[in-house]
Design a protein that fits this description.
five-stranded mixed beta sheet; 38% helix; alpha+beta; Creatine Amidinohydrolase, Chain A, domain 1; globular; Creatine Amidinohydrolase
Length: 469
């Protein structure tokens, strides 16, 4: 089982205890999740916060940390002979506890007893918001709360303390994300090389999704691979390869230790961009590069997003698709016809890092609040950047016929949008270009030893190469 040294997990828990100062932390690992009957389960994925503080990927574990005394317990049940027949020998709970530096290992039956004892002494039990129904039920039983109370009474103090720790990535975490990025590079270059021999999107998708398996990992989210890139989260892969279309691939890898990458590339299935495709593609690429230039400590990602919207609006104005004052157009939200999502999000152990803890706490704070305007309201990461943050940089331009027709019928932003010209692009699809950025002491850098081909010439050159496993 791959994990960092036990000293890493000991130090993380010590830092959390120092930040909390009082009370007791309850951390529930995930259980197996049945797919269609109890013994046929989905691939197991441990809770990311449990991974962060304990590094253990075994199902059915729980832990308690006393933030005042420093006492720590790991709870779980050892495999019996019936388990061993099916799974082979497994480490004991005591063995698991030793690997992450937890002093006390107890059977799962001891968890309720310990919590009852602590509550009886007036100790506050801090826990994070559950996102799985089985965890909600477990918490309800352990803490004697109604299901409706479980989510309402989670610890905001613990949420903020965990976010503060997990948001800043250590050098060893960055190395693990770089490992995921290297796999992502292989996934995306494979897609570019495969399209010339593929009959359908599915032919490419099955290869792309298999690549992380070679490295003991999996995909970090459900792959988007489509010639209808105007649909932002298009998970269908059933279309035949159609000359003249653009293929949008949004895919990433998750390493065996749970760290993610997240990249998007868009390329012409014919191997060469048309002039019209080049025009739009270059605007998106310039915007992606602009985000890298602007991102640095002390700058809000919200401000980077808005500047990137201006880059898109300027480019579209030069093509005659938008008009008027660019600053005014972005302030009004007219650009969102073409970019109806945010520039990016945090990334780490989760591809949308810590989103289960509440995006309002992960991507925003009291200083930076969301902008409630269509498009920009979807920006998941807006807060001030710090060294060690990892964020995605994923601008795009999309021609969404349904959104176009709605806006045109409502006469929205007619002073900024040339609807007659935009109508000529309704068969275009969409383009997104996404990289993963590490915020450094004085700026930002792209993660990954090699950048996935991104310029027009690089993409077209990559597509001439032969794919091999």
């Amino acid at each position: 089982m791959e994990m960092f040294s036990k000293e890493t997990y000991i130090a993380r828990r010590a830092a959390l205890a120092a930040a909390m100062g009082n009370g007791v932390g309850l951390f529930l690992g995930n259980a197996e999740s049945p797919m269609n009957y109890a013994d046929n389960t989905y691939n197991f994925r441990q809770d990311s916060t449990f991974l962060y503080f304990f590094g253990l990927r075994k199902p059915n574990l729980a832990a308690v940390v006393d933030f005042e005394s420093g006492d720590e317990w790991l709870f779980g049940d050892d495999a019996d002979i019936d388990d061993v027949v099916w799974t082979g020998p497994l480490p004991s709970v005591a063995d698991f506890a030793a690997t992450c530096g937890v002093a006390h290992a107890e059977p799962m039956s001891g968890l309720a007893k310990l919590l009852s004892k602590l509550v009886g002494k007036g100790r506050k039990i801090h826990y994070l918001p559950p996102y799985r129904t089985d965890t909600m039920l477990w918490l309800s039983t352990l803490l004697d709360k109604k299901i409706s109370e479980v989510g309402q009474q989670c610890s905001l103090e613990l949420i903020k303390a965990v976010i503060d720790l997990r948001a800043v990535k250590s050098d060893e975490e960055i190395a693990e994300i770089e490992r995921a990025c290297a796999i992502g590079y292989e996934m995306h270059t494979a897609a570019m090389r495969l399209v010339k021999t593929a009959a359908s999107e599915r032919d490419i998708h099955c290869i792309v999704d298999s690549i992380p398996l070679k490295y003991g990992g999996t995909t970090s989210f459900t792959t988007i691979l489509t010639q209808n890139g105007q649909t932002l989260h298009n998970h269908l892969h059933d279309k035949p390869i159609t000359p003249g279309r653009l293929m949008l691939v949004d895919a990433g890898a998750e390493t065996p230790m749970g760290y993610a990458s997240d990249f998007t590339r868009t390329f012409p299935v014919s191997g060469k961009f048309t002039q019209r495709q080049k025009d739009i593609y270059q605007i998106v690429l310039d915007t992606n590069d602009r985000a890298l230039e602007l991102a640095r400590p002390g700058v809000t990602y919200q401000s980077v997003h808005l500047e990137c919207c201006k880059t898109i609006a300027s480019g579209l104005k030069a093509l005659g698709l938008m008009r008027g004052d660019v600053d005014e157009a972005v302030a009004a939200g007219a650009h969102a016809l073409f970019l109806p999502h945010g520039l990016g999000h945090m990334m780490g152990l989760d591809v949308h890092d810590m989103e289960n803890l509440g995006q309002i706490y992960v991507g925003y704070n009291n200083e930076t609040r969301p902008i409630e305007q269509f498009g920009t309201s979807s920006l998941r990461m807006g807060r001030k950047l710090q060294p060690g943050f990892v964020v995605t940089d994923e601008p795009g331009i999309y021609f969404i016929p349904e959104l176009f027709e709605k806006w045109r019928a409502e006469h929205l932003h007619e002073q900024f949008i040339n609807y007659a010209e935009v109508a000529k692009y309704l068969d275009f699809g969409g383009i997104r270009i996404e990289d993963d950025l590490l915020i450094t002491a004085d700026g930002a850098r792209r993660l990954g030893e090699r950048r996935i081909p991104a310029t027009i010439s690089e993409v077209e050159e990559e597509m001439t190469k032969t794919f091999s496993l």
